[in-house]
Recover the amino acids of this structure.
């Protein structure tokens, strides 16, 4: 288990390495969201290989590409999305990477390409007993040598594994952004979260964690102190959920699923689409409403939660736990529908009967009013200096996706620009804070970015 005490030790390691700030320093309330070229790491330099423009001193290494042969004899699947980095020992990490594949992608983009893949460990199969292609692959990477040591399929038989989150007990929660039913291309219901241990040496049996709800999942994060899991939902009228587990570190043991509501404002609309109900920077007290039937056969959890008073969010996407709070993106939130970043700070009584007297608080940290500022933020993480790093996921006539940095004052700057017509996803840092890993969605590439993280302009 990674505790806050261990986080503190990690921060001391960063300080000894000469890095400014910490991995988990908290951004403050952003009162004026602006684009600044005077902050960040300086101007982006065009990549001669036509992949990713980065500031001076930064470079990337391609660790894995679509179609590469893996150590289990299969090929790297396409459509790499969310990803988590988990330590295995002092020098090695496991990068567990989602693949957002549908049943129709089986032979063209799946792990068995072009031959269908079959396994008794798959969650679901089609009528020909071929495993549905969604799932995860795991890369074992040595942070000291900079080499990839192993790569293999670690979960299969799911649909559209979009994002997820790491756990303090050493696993990756991979989330289905799908509510397919047996009437579709498989034989089972979908819309679940699955768990992949970091130390798994190959394919694990895919078991749905049904207490986490059946809905159009996007991402998850875990409070390391309480084990409470927070979950986003990719819908225009989505909710923010949490699971209060019956047993720390054992999500299969179930728990209580709830949705966030703003205290005193039932059915609060945070999206700011038609009118600005939620101001930037203001903290709002929250409460939580129970979700009665988490494993509903219908795609209706958000509807029941809203009727019970839960707040609406605009396509909840990436979510990341920091030291005492979490951040999550709302992809098309805001008056211009260009994206928002929310912050949630739980109370000391989170999940206990006393939390009603000392509630947690929700804040609109960033709202974009300019596509050149932030355009459809998706996955996000926290950099070694405490800035947010946000992956853009916008598709227009000319796709122009970036990794955006956000300072503690809410100033937004470009950290990287993708030259390819796809999205960036799965940004996550190595435990020592020296390497940023990120996926290119399609054709899949997984990159390791290194550079002078301590050379920050502001």
């Amino acid at each position: 288990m990674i505790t806050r005490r261990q986080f503190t030790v990690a921060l001391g390691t960063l300080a000894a390495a000469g890095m400014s700030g910490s991995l988990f320093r908290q951004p403050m309330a952003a009162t004026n969201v602006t684009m600044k070229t005077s902050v960040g790491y300086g101007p982006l330099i065009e990549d001669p290989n036509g992949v990713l423009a980065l500031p001076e001193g930064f470079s990337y290494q391609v660790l894995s590409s679509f179609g590469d042969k893996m150590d289990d004899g299969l090929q790297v699947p396409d459509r790499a999305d969310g990803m988590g980095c988990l330590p295995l020992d002092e020098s090695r990490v496991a990068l567990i990477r989602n693949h957002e594949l549908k049943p129709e992608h089986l032979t063209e983009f799946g792990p068995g390409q072009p031959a269908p893949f079959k396994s008794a460990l798959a969650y679901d199969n089609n009528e020909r007993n071929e495993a549905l292609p969604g799932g995860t692959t795991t890369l074992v990477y040595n942070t000291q040598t900079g080499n990839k040591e192993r790569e293999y399929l670690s979960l299969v038989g799911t649909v559209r594994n979009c994002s997820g989150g790491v756990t303090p007990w050493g696993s990756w929660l991979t989330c289905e952004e799908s509510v397919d039913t047996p009437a579709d291309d498989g034989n089972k219901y979908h819309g679940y979260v699955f768990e992949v241990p970091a130390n798994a040496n190959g394919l694990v049996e895919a078991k749905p964690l049904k207490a986490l709800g059946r809905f159009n999942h996007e991402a998850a994060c875990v409070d390391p102190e309480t084990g409470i899991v927070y979950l986003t939902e990719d819908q225009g009228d989505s909710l923010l959920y949490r699971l209060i587990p019956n047993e720390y570190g054992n999500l299969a043991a179930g728990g209580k699923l709830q949705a966030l509501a703003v205290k005193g404002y039932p059915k609060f609309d945070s999206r700011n689409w038609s009118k600005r109900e939620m101001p930037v920077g203001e903290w709002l007290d929250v409460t939580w409403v129970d979700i009665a039937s988490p494993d509903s056969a219908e795609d209706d959890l958000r509807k029941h939660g809203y009727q019970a008073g839960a707040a609406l969010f605009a396509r909840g996407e990436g979510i990341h736990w920091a030291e005492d709070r979490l951040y999550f993106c709302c992809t098309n939130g805001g008056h211009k529908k260009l994206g928002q970043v929310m912050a949630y700070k739980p109370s000391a009584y989170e999940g206990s009967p006393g939390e009603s007297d000392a509630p947690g608080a929700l804040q609109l940290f960033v709202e974009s009013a300019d596509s050149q500022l932030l355009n459809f933020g998706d996955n996000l993480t926290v950099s070694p200096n405490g800035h947010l790093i946000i992956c853009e996921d916008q598709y227009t006539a000319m796709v122009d996706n970036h990794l955006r940095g956000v300072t503690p004052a809410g100033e937004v700057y470009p950290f990287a620009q993708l030259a390819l017509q796809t999205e960036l996803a799965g940004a996550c840092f190595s435990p020592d804070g020296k390497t940023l890993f990120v996926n290119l969605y399609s054709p899949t590439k997984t990159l390791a970015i290194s550079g002078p993280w301590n050379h920050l302009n502001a």
Notes: Helices lie at 4-16, 106-109, 301-307.
